[in-house]
Every structure is written in structure tokens, then in C-alpha cells.
Amino acid sequence: MIQAVGKLFREFELRSTGKWFVLSTLIGIVAGLGAIVFQHLSQVVIFFALVSFSGYAPDEAAGENSPFEVSAEETAVPSIWRIVGVMALGGLASGFLVYTFAPEAEGHGTDAAIEAFHHKRGMIRKRIPLIKTLASAITMGTGGSGGREGPIAQIGAGFGSFLATRLNLSARDRRIMLAAGMGAGVGAIFRAPLAGALFAGEILYSEAEIESDAIIPAAISSVVAYSVFCFSLPPEKRFMPLFGRTIDLMPIGPAELIPFTLMALVLVLVGFVYIKVFYGTHAIFQKLPIKPHFRPAIGATLAGLIAAALYFATAGDRETLSVLSTGYGALQHAIDPSVHLTIGMLLLIAAAKIVTTSLTISSGGSGGVFGPSMVIGGCVGAAIGQYFHAYWPDLAPSEPQVYAIVGMAGFFAGCAHAPISTIMMVSEMTGSYSLLLPALWVSTICFLMSRRWKLYEKQLPTRLESPAHRGDFIVDVLEGIKVDDVYRRDTDLIYINESTSLDEIVHTLTKTHQHYFPVVDNENRMVGIFSSDDVRAYLYDETIWHLAVARDIMVTNVLSVSPQDDLNVALTRFTALNLDELPVLDAEDSHKLLGMLRRKETIAFYNRQLAAHKQSGTE
Predict the structure, then answer these.
(1) Which of 61, 170, 181, 463 has the lowest tally of Cβ within 10 angstroms?
(2) Where are the domains of the chain?
């Protein structure tokens, strides 16, 4: 059954909207369900490990939903040392799962999906999404600092890769389905379907490049995943932006771009520090002379100790505990006008979040880096906004939370080299598009000034450097060359009438080297085609030689070209079903056969064109 379905999809045209609608919808459904499972699993771990045992309930974003009732009395005084112990055990459990069953699932999963796209023909082992889900839920559910997008992106990408493999689709299709799965996971967990689609195409490259083939499939899968995930929420939070609609924003004037520009410069510096600390910590943990299974436990314990030190140093200020888990509570407070965090507290949370995220993820713990990046950028932006609003109110009349939102976008745009998807994601997560201009301005500055370092190491600069697009230069070499320039107008081509018996066909095969035989009706109009391989299936069954005729063995759904098609179209159709010849049909009459285009001759023609191209380049 699976083989039959796979054959059906392989025979679709490569750009078939119907094909990608079906496949992308399936990916979106699974990614949405995966996001639901991961979210609930994380909440279960949080409730039993942190709330019930440690007396600490991490603050969440306004749009989040927990299935458990937590009273204020239960979490009035958290047990800090129990939190540290829980984090150590969580790191130990996560490390055991990852390094025993799927070492590729360590760290932030987005990089692994990017590497699979470029270097592994879109292949992701089946067990990785499951291990990533469990390990990430344990890591963040026990207080480890990380984001949800990494595991969810890998769940969606893993299913896309698995589905393409089971259907025996091409490597190109598998890569597209992997990217669509990434977009679906991100679109669902962050309630940002449009941004999820752009994220899937943009995050693969570090320059201003996008994987255009993946955008439409990713858009479909992201919208479906978003819808599936939202329907699991209670009605009052269904389709609510992740951080709620907290701000009524006034238009930003040109003069106000000056403080935003200064903020962008600060964000670039903080991004540089974040990336250097993150990968510097990773290098230190790689050199530790212990089994990798124990490294996440060490990283989680150190992260817990840092949170404990901040908690006691601030006389028990619960806001400092936002440096653990996702940290979305601090970000929600930074963009909520009814809550006031001091500049010092905002900068303290941002600095500590850099360290705790590096310790948690770079040690081998499982989680994403997008979420922590949002917290860091948002807190730094809010602090800068408060400063400008207090000392230069004429230059910065906007509320400080405006800077928090723009800071979220600019910081991750610079670190991840994904400015457009980040701008859309922040807009969708906050429910406001009124800051598109300053967000675009700050993100562009951060992107341009941060090109020498990147958060996702597996990104490649452009499609030209990607092994996934090796050979795309053929399009340039063959541009403008028509089938009419290459195909053979055979005068001795053998035609088979549709009523010709199989017995006659078998005897005809013994007298010719021709491989493909056009089938024509009594008016000499082509109605189908068969190959000598199709006939061989009947050679040992002589009982039907006089019963079967040409129309019984011919293929009616013929892949063909016209003289006006270019050779790129021909090459695509050769490879679609691994054909050696294509019939050339009249553009005005699709039943009039003009000749046959052979793959060997087309490749030979291409080689001659390539040699001439190289020769002209050296002269």
C-alpha cells in the first residue's frame, strides 16, 4: 500500500500543488500533535519536579496554558536547593537518553536539521524526534534553560524525512518535507504560522538567501500545525498570540529611529558575547575527561547554582529565577506595561540567561536557543527603552516595552541571520504589526553587522555552497536551448498500432535495437508508449501472446516534451521517472509525434555546451 502511494506521488509533476498540499497537510498534522504532546509532557515534568517537589512554578507567557492548578501557597517560598538537585537529576536523565540512543539529539535541534538538509540528503533517523522530545521535556521541565523551538522543529523535520523515505520520494522532495516540518513545528509552538513558513526557508542560510522551493509546503504545514495546536487550548486562549495583545502602539516617527539605532549597536555587541560564550562553553565541556552522558548534569547543576546565587543576592526576588527554563515569564513582564522591572534587573536577567543557556545546552542538554535569544534581546531592549524614556523622553516618547519587542527581533535576527522570519514571528507572538518599521530597521542593522559570527553553525552562506543544490548551474548552461535543437527526427522509428498483437510485438523486438515504441491509432495519432522492458514481463507466458494487444501494455500517461520546451524541462522529466527517452510531440497537436529525445544525446549536448562555456571563460 505504501509503495503504491509513493509511486503515485513520484509520478506527480514536481511542482504539483496537489502533491504538496497533501504531503504538507500530513506533516502539519503530525507536527501540531507533536507540539501538543511536547507541551503537555513538559508541563507534567514541571508540575511534579518543580511545583510539587521544589515549590517553584516558572512564570509563563500570557498565551501559555497549564493543565494543572497551582495555588499561590504552594509556590510562595521555593526551595532553591531542591531546584538545583532537580536540575542535576534532569541533566543526568537527559544525558543518558541522548548519548545512549541518539547522540545527534544533543544541544539545539535546529542545527541538526539544517545539517541533514545540506549534507545528509534530508535524512533524519526515526528515533531522533522521540529522543529529542523526551530529553527536551526533561531538560526544560526540570529547570534547564532552553527554548521549545529546537525539539519541535526536529519533531516536524523528522516526520517529514520519515514520510518522504517511506514513500520512496527523491532526495529533493525529502529535503523540502524536512524544511516544511521545521516550519510547522516553529509555527505551532510559537503561534506564528506565517513566520514558521519563512523560518523554514530562511534559517538554512547565513546570507540574504532563502530556500524558495520550501516556502509553499512550509506555509501549508505551518498553518495546519498552528490550527491543530490551537484547538488543544481552552477557548479563551485559542488563537491568542503567545505573549497576548498587551500594547496599543503609536506610530513611530523618523526621529525615534535614532535611539533604535543605538539599541541595535548594543544588541550586536550582546549577540557577539552570547555566541562566544555559548560555543566557548561547548568547547570546554568537550574537553572534560568524562563520559558525555554526565556533561549535561554538570551543566544543569552549574546553571542551577547561578540561579541560586542570584536569588539569594537579590534577597529572594523570584524574578531572578526566570534565568531557568524558558524564561518567558520575564519576557512577558518586560513587554507588559502593568509590570515594572528595573533596568538593573533586566540586564541581570539577560546576562545570567546567556550563561545558564550556555551551560544547559552547550554541555549537551537538549533544548532550543531561539527562546532564550528572545528573552535576552527583549530584556536588553526593555532596559535600553527605560533608559532613553527616562533621560531623553522627547527622543524616545514610546513606552519601554516597544523597545523590548524590537529588541527581541533585532537580537535573534543578528544571531541567527534570519531577519525577515524573525520580524514576522515577533509580530505574530505579540499580536501587533505596528512595529514593523523599527523592527525591520533594527533587524537589518543587526543582521549586517553580525555577519562574521552565527548562532547556527551548520548554516551555509548561500544555495551555491549547499550540496543540496550541487548541479543547479546546469540551468545557466542550458538556458535558452530548446528541445528542437537536440532531438532526433527519426525517419526509421518503428510505430506500433494499438491493435497489434503481443505475438507480433515480440517478433518485432528481435529485429530492432529500438527501446521505446510509440503506439498509434488507425489515424497515426500517438495514443501511448511502451518499452521493451514492459514486453519482457510477458515473454514466458505464451498463452496470452495472441490475446493481448499493444493497448494492453502501453502507458497512456506519457511524459513528453515539445520542440519549444527548453532542455531544463527535458532533464527534469528524464529524472522524474528515470527515463532514457522522451517523445517529442507537436505543441499544437499533442497526438502528433515528431521524434524522440534521448537522454544520452541530451547529456552529450550539455557536456559540449559546458566545455564551450569553460573555454570561453578562459579566453
Answers:
(1) 170
(2) 2-467, 474-618
Residue that has been written with the C-alpha cell 500500500 in this structure: 1
- Using DSSP's 3-state secondary structure scheme, residue 529 falls into strand
Q: Residue 76 burial (CB < 10 Å; 0-12/13-18/19+)?
A: exposed
Cell of residue 344, nine digits: 538593573
CATH code of 474-618, in short, is: 3.10.580.10
Rounded Cα distance, 21 and 27, in Å: 10
Across 166-323, where does the E strand assignment appear? none
What is the CATH topology of the domain spanning 2-467?
Clc chloride channel (1.10.3080)
Cα distance between residue 577 and residue 193, in whole Å: 34
Q: Are strands 516-520 and 593-598 parallel, antiparallel or unpaired?
A: unpaired
Helix/strand/coil for 492 = coil
| Cell 527616562, located at residue | 390
What residue type is 470 in one-letter code? Answer: R
DSSP 332-398: HHHT-TT----HHHHHHHHHHHHHHHHHHHHTT-B-BSHHHHHHHHHHHHHHHHHHHHHH-TTT--S
> What are 468-521's pLDDT values in tens digits?
887 655 545 666 678 888 887 766 788 888 888 888 888 888 788 888 888 888
Cβ-count burial 155-185 (b if 16+ within 10 Å, e if not): bbbbbbbbbbbebebbebbbbbbbbbbbbbb
